[in-house]
Amino acid sequence: MEIYKVLKKYFGLDSFKKEQAELIKEILRGKDVLGILPTGYGKSLCYQVPALMMRGSTLVISPLISLMKDQVDGLLDRGIPATFLNSSLDLEESRRRRQDIQRGMYKLIYISPESLKSPRIAGILRNLGLAQVAVDEAHCISIWGHDFRPSYLDIRHFIDTLPKRPVVTAFTATATEAVIEDILMLSGLQDPFQIRGNLDRPNIFFSVVKPQDDLEELIRIMDKRRGHQGIIYCQRKKEAEALSRILEHRGHRTGLYHGGMDDAQRHKVQEDFAFDRIQVVVGTSAFGMGIDKSNVRFVIHMGIPMNLESFYQEAGRAGRDQGYSESYLIYREPDFQRQLGLLQHNLQSEDRLLIERDKLVTMDRYGRGRKCLRSYLLDYFHSNPRQGMLGEKEESVPCGSCSVCAQQGILPSKVLDPLILQSMETLPQPVSRERLLLLFQEEELQTGGLNPLARYPQEKLAEHLEELVVQGQLLASPQGYALTAEGKRWAERMLPEDEQAPEETQPETPTQELFQQLKEIRKEISWMENIAPYIIFHDETLKDIIRRYPRNRSEFMEIRGVGRTKAMKYGEIFIEALRAFEEKNPQVRKKPLVLPEASPEGEEGFVDAFELHQEGKTVEEMARILGVVPGTVVDRLIRDHAKERPVDLQRIFNAALEKDILDSIRRHGPEKLKPLKDDLEAQGKSVEYLDLKVVLYKHFGIRKK
C-alpha cells in the first residue's frame, strides 16, 4: 500500500511534513536513518508508517513506560495491532503478551532497553524476524546527553545477535554535535540517512522574568492562566509541595508529582492530567517524560534546571498541537550555586562534573542574558535557520517572539496582529491612537492574559497600526481606528477557545457551546474505553469537525486526524451530536459557524484559496471570490506552499520586482515590511506588501502577515 494511503487510512492525515516523507521513503528502501526532529513534530509516524508496510514486526525501544501505554493505546484505537512489554505488567499479562508476540500478532512492539537483558524476551525477539528496530529518545545513549541511560549501550549488541539484520532507525528531539556523534557510533546504525530538522518551536513564546518576589510573580502568571493546561517545574521537592498547596488554595485544580511519591500516586497524577481531571501539575523534572498531551498551553520553570537540553525538552511539552503557548523561566540568582552544589555532591567523576558544570553555566546564561532567547537556544543545538540568512550576516537574526525581543521592540506580525486585533474587538470603536497606545502599555491585555506589548516601543506600535490599515484589517479616520470586516474575521480566527471571559460575564456562543459538547462526548468515550481524551481526538480535530460539519460517515472520515477505524468507531456518535445541535440551533443551517483558532496558523480557508489557484485564478480574482483582501490570499497560499502543496509562487506576486526587492532587503534587513516599501517607492517603483511577503518567504523562509 502506498504511504499516503496508509497515512489517510490509519491516521486520517493527507500529507507528510517534508522530513517525515524523506525518512519514511529511505526506511522503506531498507536504509538505516537518524532523525533529529523537534518535540511535537511527529517522529513516531516516521517508524509507524513503515512498520505497517513492512513484512514482519517493528520493535520500538523506548525508555518511557508511560509513553509506551499511550502510544499503544493510540495505535489500538486506530485499528493497528500493537503491544508493549515492561515492568508495569503483572506476570500473567506479560506471559500472554509474549505468547502473542511469538504468534506474530503485532505490527509494533514497544519495550524498554532494560528488557533486552532478559534472555527470554531477547530470545523471542530473535526468532521473530524483525523488520525494523526503532530507537526512540536516542540521545539516552550518549554520556554527553542530559539523560544518559547505560542500558541503551546494550542495543547494538542485541542488533548484532539477530539472525537477520533489520532496518535500524533512531530518533531524538534534542541533540548537540557531541551527542549526535555518540548516537552514530554506539547505536548500531550503518551508514544512516540523516535528517537534522529545524528544532525551532515557533508557536512557543519564550519569556525570562526576574521578579523581586518569585511566589508573587508565579501567582500573577497563574491567575491569568485559569482554565489552561500547564506544567510548573520546581528544582526541589519541598518547593513543589508548597506551591501545589498554595495554588490549590487559590482555586487551581492542581496535582503534585515528584520522585519521592510511590508509583501508584505518581500514576494517578499522570492519569488525572491526561484525562483533564486536573489542569496544572506542579512537579520536579521527574514529571512529563512520556506525556504526549497536545493541549498544554504553558510551562513554567521555577529556577534554572541543570542544562539547556532538559529545559528545552520540558518547555517543548507545551503546544504540541501547534497552538500558541508560553514558556516562562522565573530566574533566581541563588539557583546556580544550589544546582552546582547538587552536581558536586552527586557526581564522583571529575570529568563528568566538568561536563555538567559547563552545561549549567550555559543554562544560567540563558536566564541572565540579553540576547534573543530563541536564537540562544537554537544556536546551542546548531539549529538556527535565521543565522546568516542574508549571506553577509554572522550573527543570528532576533526571533521577534520572546520577552527579550519584545523589550527591544522586535515582534513580528504573527504576534502583533492577534494582540492588537483581539484587544480592539473588546473596545467601542473607533478608538483613538492615543488611547490604544495607552492600553497597550498595561500589564494585562483587554482579552485577559499577560501583555507582551507592555514594554514594546510606542513608535513601533504606531507604525504597525498603519501597516494593519494598509493590509485592510483596520480602518483609519479622524476619530481613530476601527476593525474592518476582514479585521473582525482575523480577530475571531486568532482567539484561542480558552481565552474567554468567565461564564458569568460572557454568554457562550453557539460555536463554543458545540465545542464544549464535543469535548464532553470525547470525555465520556475516554472514561468508557479507559484511554486519554487526546488519544481519541485532539482539540484541533474537534474544531475541524465543527468547521466542516460532516453529515455522514464518509464525510467524517475526511476530517483531519480521523481515519477509517475511528470513523467506524466514533463517527455516528459525533454526527448524531451535530444533528441534535442543529435542531436546537436552526441558524446553523443558514450561517456557517465561525470557530476561534488556537493560533493564527489555523487551516481555515486553505482549501478554497488553493483550489482557486489550481484553477488558474489571479490573486485579485481569488480575493473577490473569497471576500478578503489580496494580502490574505497570499498569506494562505504561502502557508499552502510551506505544507508542500504545489503553489506556483511566481504567479502570486509581481516577479519583475524580485531583484529590486532583494536589493532592498540587503540594505534594510528582513525584519519590517514598511522600510522596504518606502525604499522601493522612493525609487519610483510601485510595490505591494504582498510582493514583499512572497520574496521574503521564497528566498529566506520568512512568513509575515
From TrEMBL:
A GO cellular-component term linked to this record: bacterial nucleoid
Q: Does the keyword Calcium apply?
A: no
Q: Which Pfam families match?
A: DEAD, Helicase_C, HRDC, HTH_40, RecQ_Zn_bind
What PROSITE patterns does this protein's entry cite? HELICASE_ATP_BIND_1 (PS51192), HELICASE_CTER (PS51194), HRDC (PS50967), RHODANESE_3 (PS50206)
Q: Which residues form the Rhodanese domain?
A: 199-272
User: Keywords, A to Z?
Assistant: ATP-binding, DNA-binding, Helicase, Hydrolase, Isomerase, Metal-binding, Nucleotide-binding
Q: Which GO annotations describe the biological process of this protein? A: DNA recombination; DNA repair
Helicase C-terminal domain span: 214-361
Q: Which cofactor does it need?
A: Mg(2+)
SMART domains found in the cross-reference section: DEXDc (SM00487), HELICc (SM00490), HRDC (SM00341)
EC number(s): the record gives: 5.6.2.4
Describe the location of the Helicase ATP-binding domain by residue ranges. 24-193
HRDC domain sequence ranges: 508-588
Q: Which reaction does it catalyse?
A: Couples ATP hydrolysis with the unwinding of duplex DNA by translocating in the 3'-5' direction
How is this protein named in the record?
ATP-dependent DNA helicase RecQ
Organism of this sequence:
Proteiniclasticum sediminis
